Amino acid sequence: MYKRQTLSNGAKILLVGCKRVQHTSEISYHREVFKYEVDYVIDGASIEENRFFKAYYKVSGIMKWFQKTNFVFGLKGNHYIDISNDNKLIIYEAKDHKIEYYVGYSLPNDFLKETITITQNPSIIIESKEAQKIQWFDTKFNDFKAIIELAIHKRINYQKVSMQAIPPKDFTPINSVLYSVDSSFSTRKNKEEGGYINYLFTCQDLVDSGNLNDWHKKRSKLEPVLDLYLEVYYSGTSKIENHFLNICQALETYHARMISDSKNEYKKMAKSKLEGYQSEWEKFLIRDPRLSLIHI
User: Which InterPro entries match (predicted)?
Assistant: First the structure.
């Protein structure tokens, strides 16, 4: 459901995903009051303009995984800073859309200060060859976000999104408009990454592997297994017993979907995943199937 509204100051907004949540009658005032929840508030857009070619998602806490920056230590020594042009990466490109990563930056307008802050702004940019609804871009973002979360072992989300309604070939930064969006799906800033992080795989691994569609297909097939894996990182307070139960369920589901009727492979995987755990846990997983609820 869409609604175009004009505010008292003349500003126009487009409400996308409206749902009526309350209706009250104020008889003494001779009026009916309707309350709505809205998925997106797009500043300045119209109903006809709920079609976009490009979305810019501001996402914090992901720079180390992407390994792109605007600044490097200078050739003259670590107390010098040089500008780097290595701040952009094409993640995926197909006939209908493209996914890019870009890092912008901002400098202070006054250097006559004791403390100077340089800020970098990582973005995930999704471009469509044809005009699409904002929900289409959010779906593509969430698909890609799920892969990043699997690699970095934590939840992430976008803090801000802007939409471009003009085809990229006709877009000019000076004369064209980017629509600011107040999204109900955005969240606060993600936690900054620390020093060394043991990623499951890197962004470069993802790019080198080729087709992002293959990643999505595999993830869809293994979604129950991955959900069990990610739950450990998302819960924050999960007990080790719950980790063990997740391992059991993940192994069973994986072999049911990927390596069915292979007892040797199951035992091999169980021993590998339980290395360092109590020996009783391994015995439980590979016990005689005739006495078990786990059928191999």
Answer: ApeA_NTD
Q: Which has more confidence, 294 or 113?
A: 113
CB neighbourhood size of 54 (10 A)? 22
Q: Which domain holds residue 152?
A: 51-197
**Are residues 25 and 134 located together in one domain of the fold?**
no
Residue 216, C-beta contacts closer than 8 angstroms, at least 6 positions apart: 143, 147
| Confidence (pTM) | 0.76
Are 156 and 25 contained in the same domain? Answer: no
CB 131 within 8 A of CB 182: no
In a domain, 208, yes or no: no
Cα torsion 121, 122, 126, 132: sign: negative
Q: What is the pLDDT of residues 134-159, one digit of tens each?
A: 999 999 999 999 889 888 888 899 99
Residue 121 host element (H or E) = strand 119-132
The total number of structural domains that make up the chain: 3
